[in-house]
Every structure is written in C-alpha cells, then in structure tokens.
C-alpha cells in the first residue's frame, strides 16, 4: 500500500510503500547537514523513494538532484513523487547499481553527494528476510566502501559528501572516506537526549580536502521532558507558516 505525506503543511509530498523500507528520522537529520546554495548539482546514493532529495529541495528549491537506487519499485515511486510535486526538471532518478556509476555519469558530475546507507554488514543487525528491506538495511548490494568510492568518482574536486550512520561504524566511515580520497571535515553526533550516549552521527567529507576534522555541537533530539528539541522541530519544518 502506498502512503503519501507532506513534509510540512502546503509543502512537498513524499511517498513510501509498505513493501519497501519505510522512511525514518535519519533522512530528516541528514538533510540538515549539507550547506546548501542555489544551483548545486546533488546526487543521492541509494535514494529509495526519493525522500532525501525532496527534503533538500524543500530547504533549497534551486537544486538539481539525481537519485540512484538499485530497486526498480522504489525508483518508480520516486518518479511519481517528482511528478506529483512538479519537480521533474529538478529531481530525476536512475535505476542503477551505484557500484557501476562510471557507466552512467562522467566523473565530477556533482557538487554534493548524500547517502543514508545500509547500516549493517551482511549477517549482523536486525535484518529483514524481505529482499527489498534487506537491501535497504544491510550491505548486501553495496558496502560503505562502495558508496564512498561512488561518491568520490561522482564529485568534482572540492565537492562534499554527507552521510548518516550508526556510531559503531564511525571508524569504518572515516577510513572508507579517506581511502576513497574524500577527507572527513565535519562530524556531528546525534543524541536522543543530552545525557544519553550518541546513537548516530552525521559526517561531511570533501573530495581532495586537506586533513582537519571539526567536531560540531551535538544534535539533541529531545529535552528532559521528552518533548522534541527546537532544532528537531526545525528539521521537521514544524511551527512554520504555510
């Protein structure tokens, strides 16, 4: 069954399907990390049904976003969402294996790459037996190293790559980025509450950048009362005028 929701009242609409991986908070959090400016060429690696691209366009309408995903049903829904939001000139998709991006794009085609990648190596984590959900959660089709290598090929020199991941994979992410020629530059930990250990991190790397990593203030999702933090409300476009 298809589900259509608004990012904010009067804003863009996104779609998800019961048989595919349901969009979560991670994509919303990741969309807050890139420093967006008009005219950027953006690539979403493992785009699913296109939520992350829509989030970026909701924040900065003057982008050109290309989503890549190996799952044809997800790409079909993503294309429906682009048409529904009248964004077919700014939001396009390709059903392809990101490990083979050289077949589809010239190197340096993008200024910014983003990815909400599978979190678990094969055989670990709570991975669904359903093939579509397994692909979304487990590195069965593409590893973290594969994703970083694809980003490095697609980005221009000085282009940025932003991703979200679980904290226990931080060393893997830092090593994979540097191995691909993308220098880690900005790191931000995500805490459910200030007194809890972080569960996720947001990371930005620069293609061909110089060494030097900045640890940014943590992103806190809830206050002591359990209410969403002001920053989380802003990320979800709450309390904004229509």
Concise structural overview:
With 242 residues, the chain is α/β, with parallel strands linked by helices. It has 7 helices and 11 strands.
Question: What secondary-structure arrangement, pairings included, does this model have?
Answer:
Blueprint: E1 2-6, E2 13-17, H1 25-31, E3 41-45, H2 51-59, E4 64-69, H3 72-84, E5 91-95, E6 110-115, H4 131-137, H5 144-154, E7 155-166, H6 170-180, E8 182-193, E9 200-207, E10 214-215, E11 219-222, H7 230-235
Parallel strand pairs: 3-4, 3-6, 4-5, 6-7, 8-10, 8-11
Antiparallel strand pairs: 1-2, 7-9, 8-9
Give an overview of the whole structure.
- The chain has 242 residues and is an alpha/beta fold.
- Helices cover 26% and strands 29% of the residues.
- It is built from 7 helices and 11 strands.
- The strands form 2 sheets. Strands 3, 4, 5, 6, 7, 8, 9, 10 and 11 form a 9-stranded mixed β-sheet that branches.
- Helix 1 runs parallel beside helix 2 and helix 5 runs parallel beside helix 6.
- It is globular.
- The two termini are 28 Å apart.
Which band does the percent of strand residues land in?
Answer: 25-35%
Q: Determine Rg (CA atoms, Å).
A: 17 Å
Count of individual helical segments: 7
Silhouette: globular
Measure the end-to-end span: 28 Å
Number of strands: 11
Oligomer: single chain
Helix content: 25-40%
Poorly predicted parts: 132-136
Series of secondary-structure elements, N-terminal to C-terminal: EEHEHEHEEHHEHEEEEH
Which structural class best describes the helix and strand composition? alpha/beta
> Largest sheet, described in full?
9 strands, mixed
- Overall pLDDT metric: 92
């Amino acid at each position: 069954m298809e589900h259509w929701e608004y990012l904010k009242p009067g804003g863009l609409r996104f779609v998800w399907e019961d048989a595919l991986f349901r969009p979560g908070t991670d994509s919303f959090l990741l969309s807050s990390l890139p420093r967006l400016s008009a005219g950027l060429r953006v690539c979403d690696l493992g785009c699913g049904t296109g939520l992350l691209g829509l989030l970026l366009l909701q924040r900065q309408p003057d982008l050109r976003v290309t989503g890549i995903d190996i799952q044809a049903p997800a790409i079909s829904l993503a294309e429906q969402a682009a048409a529904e939001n009248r964004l077919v000139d700014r939001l396009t998709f390709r059903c392809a294996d990101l490990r083979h991006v050289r077949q589809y794009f010239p190197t340096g085609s993008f200024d910014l790459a983003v990815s909400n990648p599978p979190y678990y190596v094969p055989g670990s984590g709570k991975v669904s037996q359903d093939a579509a959900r397994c692909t979304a959660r487990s590195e069965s089709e593409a590893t973290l190293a594969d994703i970083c290598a694809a980003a490095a090929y697609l980005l221009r020199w000085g282009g940025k790559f932003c991703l979200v991941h679980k904290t226990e994979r931080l060393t893997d992410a830092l090593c994979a980025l540097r191995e691909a020629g993308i220098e880690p530059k900005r790191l931000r930990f995500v805490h459910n509450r200030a007194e809890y250990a972080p569960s996720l991190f947001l990371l930005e790397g620069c293609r061909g950048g110089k060494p030097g990593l900045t640890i940014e203030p943590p992103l806190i999702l809830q206050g002591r009362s359990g209410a969403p933090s002001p920053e989380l409300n802003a990320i979800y476009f709450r309390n904004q005028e229509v």
